[in-house]
Amino acid sequence: MAEEGAEEASGETASAPRRTVYRSRITGRVVSQAERIAAARARIVADEIRGIETEPWIVELAKQSA
Fold it and tell me: How far from 4 is each of 15, 17, 45, 48, CA to CA, in Å?
């Protein structure tokens, strides 16, 4: 019972899915998933020009559709 009261007091429910919010490191504003994908694609191109290997998680992010 005490656990249920703690959930109600915090405003969270067990059935509500949690969403990750991504923020800009420079400005702190919220960044959309489409912006993250576009940045990952740009990073891959820049890394190819530099001749370095892009991290796998960035490549996977770039493969997603915006």
Answer: 13, 17, 50, 52
Q: What is the pLDDT of residues 32-54, one digit of tens each?
A: 999 999 999 999 999 999 999 99
Q: What is the pLDDT of residues 2-39, one digit of tens each?
A: 544 444 455 555 677 888 899 999 999 999 999 999 99
Residue with tokens 């420079």: 26
**What residue spans of 1-66 are helical by DSSP H?**
2-10, 33-50, 56-63
Q: How far is CA 32 from CA 53, 64, 65, in A?
A: 25, 13, 13
